[in-house]
Write a structure and sequence with these properties.
Elements (H helix, E strand, L loop, with lengths): L2 E6 L16 E2 L2 E2 H9 L6 E4 L14 E2 L9 H13 L6 E6 L9 H12 L3 E6 L2 E10 L3 H9 L5 H5 L4 E6 L13 H18 L2
Parallel strand pairs: 1-4, 1-6, 4-5, 7-9
Antiparallel strand pairs: 2-3, 6-8, 7-8
Helix pairs in contact: 2-4
């Protein structure tokens, strides 16, 4: 099995007041830098899903793919774009999708999702914490690509409704004073993330 990674940054960030959420500064670094570091993807196995001018991410030297459908249809379109990209990468069987606004992604995300999916015998796996599932943070087999495209064209926009057709294992992470899947959608949440930084940088998030 070979895994590729897609960071989803294709939204319009309306609750943040526009702009690119992953490029917002958190401490002394952009949120996107923190996501990339925590994923620790092998060279050549990481792609960024973003719309409009890809040049704003040029400093990252990553491939950038736009949504597979027009008019911002949501994260499923970005996941499909990641799957389309991954098909061209030798030996890739699955992708791991994460949002670009989650700076505290667990470093053991891929290994635990793979183990959870294998144990459940399902086609998909997603992260869960504090009683909530996070459908956008999940494993996607390349084999689902055509079905996903058909579903999107037919109007499907909900991730869990699509993955529910085939079975999706929810893999739980502990909530110990913080949510490892905390995402930054608003200016207030950016301030909350700043307050969590000492805990994260102290090495207490695995």
């Amino acid at each position: 099995m070979s895994l590729a990674y897609v960071i989803l940054a294709g939204g319009r960030a309306t609750r943040m007041g526009g702009g690119d959420k992953p490029l917002k500064r958190l401490g002394d670094r952009a949120i996107l830098d923190r996501v990339i570091d925590r994923l620790a993807a092998p060279a050549g196995r990481l792609v960024l899903n973003a719309n409009a001018d890809p040049g704003r991410f040029a400093s990252y030297s990553l491939p950038v793919v736009s949504d597979a459908l027009p008019d911002y249809p949501g994260p499923l379109a970005g996941i499909l774009a990641g799957l389309d990209w991954a098909v061209g990468q030798d030996g890739v069987t699955d992708i791991l999708s994460v949002p670009g606004d989650c700076p505290f992604i667990p470093k053991n995300l891929a290994s635990r999702l793979l183990t959870g999916r294998a144990g459940a015998g399902t086609a998909f796996a997603c992260a869960a914490s504090d009683g909530w599932t996070h459908p956008v943070i999940g494993l996607w087999p390349i084999s689902c690509r055509d079905d996903l495209r058909d579903a999107l064209v037919a109007g499907e926009r909900k991730i869990d409704r699509f993955t529910g057709r085939y079975g999706c294992a929810a893999v739980e992470w502990p909530h110990e004073g913080y949510d490892p899947f905390f995402n930054v959608n608003t200016p207030d949440e950016l301030l909350q993330a700043e307050a969590l930084l000492p805990l994260v940088e102290g090495g207490q998030i695995p």
